[in-house]
Design a protein that fits this description.
The protein is α/β, with parallel strands linked by helices. Helix content is 47%, strand content 18%. The protein contains eleven helices and nine strands. Strands 3-2-1-4-6-5 form a six-stranded mixed β-sheet, sandwiched between helices. Strands 7-8-9 form a three-stranded mixed β-sheet, covered by helices on one side. A hairpin with a 5-residue loop joins strand 5 and strand 6. Helix 3 packs across helix 8 (200-209), helix 5 (119-126) packs antiparallel against helix 6 (132-154) and helix 10 (237-256) packs antiparallel against helix 11 (309-322). The structure holds xanthosine-5'-monophosphate. Xanthosine-5'-monophosphate binds next to loops.
């Protein structure tokens, strides 16, 4: 009898032991997961609470580019302060085909959205400028001037930014979240960065949770100075338009091939070089366009993968057929380093 009870007891201990191990390991995993896993619903609630607490009933402004970071920050902040957030989209005339309309259509129904057409202002300041760094500097300055004008008009006291963790980790380490920025003419705005602790994958999860369309959530990174870094040499409306059309063809064919999710960036560069060609029976003299398609994890390094030859040929044929100013298409095969991703 005693033996039977001992057996039952030992069995109970064994089961309990196993259960304890299972329970401990489940609890452990949950705690670890709790730390590791990003919970978009609770993040949204906390972020809304924080933004409300900081901004109160004052006005805030955000530069919305249509990229995933600024889009997510805009939607999040507008959930907190509603129409007191003014999302400003500046069309600098260097956008991709259909981009301005797409961003407008996506956001004007969701946000207090302000569309600013400033193409002439930008092009005017860029006249005669060939140096890529100089172009970037001018674009940055004009952008701030336009933005400051709007902030003043709107009476904003806060600036919401879509800064994410790699932005400040790579630049200057952890700076405190509440800091101010003085715009060139003395307007001082307090900065609010609701997604500054997040990484890109978390921002994308948040974007989906906030109901942003996949085109925004998965958008290929697009440089702030836009097509200016893809047109070599002095900018003109004509050259920007050629580059825009060539880029649209590249994007179209890359998407058809299903490579848009694996490539980091894919685009066309309009060089300043003109080469002889023949169209029909007539000699022609037109631009050389270079195709650039790279894989990358963080843009610090990049490599050119093997690309489907049919796709490259189709892109080349379409560009020379559909854009009469182009006579020649070449493919860039250089990795980063030594080359950079963009051409300018
Ligand atoms: P590079 O050309 O330096 O580009 O290899 C690395 C990544 O950064 C993007 N890029 C820019 N983004 N302003 C931006 O906002 C810029 O002036 C700029 N230049 C390059 C580029 O598209 C790539 O993803």
């Amino acid at each position: 009898m005693a033996q039977r009870y001992l057996k039952i007891f030992l069995r109970f201990v064994r089961v309990l032991n196993v259960n304890l191990i299972v329970i401990i390991s489940i609890a452990n995993n949950t705690i670890l997961k709790g730390e590791k896993m990003f919970n978009p619903s609770s993040f949204i609630q906390e972020a809304i609470h924080e933004i409300k607490k900081t901004v109160g009933d004052k006005k805030a402004i955000i530069a919305l580019s249509g990229g995933v970071d600024s889009s997510v920050a805009s939607v999040l902040a507008s959930k907190a302060i509603e129409d007191n957030l003014i999302a400003v989209f500046v069309d600098h005339g260097l956008l991709r085909e259909g981009e301005a309309d797409y961003v407008k259509n996506t956001f004007q129904k969701r946000l207090n959205f302000r569309f600013v057409s400033a193409e002439d202002e930008f092009l005017d300041k860029l006249k005669g400028v060939e140096d890529p760094e100089e172009k970037r500097k001018i674009i940055g300055e004009v952008f701030i001037r336009v933005f400051e004008r709007i902030a003043e008009e709107e009476g904003a006291e806060f600036l919401v930014q879509g800064t994410i963790a790699p932005d400040w980790i790579e630049s200057q380490g952890k700076i405190k979240s509440h800091h101010n920025v003085a715009l060139p003419h003395g307007l001082v705005l307090e900065i609010v960065e609701p997604i500054r602790e997040l990484y890109k994958d978390e921002v994308r999860i948040l974007g989906t949770k906030l109901g942003l369309p996949p085109e925004i959530v998965n958008r290929q990174p697009y440089p702030g100075p836009g097509l200016a870094v893809r047109v070599v040499g002095e900018l003109s409306s004509e050259k920007i338009e050629i580059c825009r059309k060539a880029n649209a063809i590249v994007e179209d064919e890359v998407k058809k091939e299903g490579l848009d999710e694996t490539l980091w960036q894919y685009f066309a560069v309009l060089t300043d070089t003109k080469v002889t060609g023949v169209k029909g029976d007539i000699r022609d003299y037109g631009y050389l366009v270079i195709l650039r398609m790279v894989e990358s994890l963080d843009a610090m390094t990049a490599n050119v993968p093997e690309l489907p030859w049919n796709m490259i040929k189709t892109i080349s044929q379409r560009i020379t057929a559909e854009i009469h100013e182009v006579t020649h298409v070449a493919l860039s095969v250089s990795d980063k380093p030594p080359s950079t991703i963009e051409f300018a």
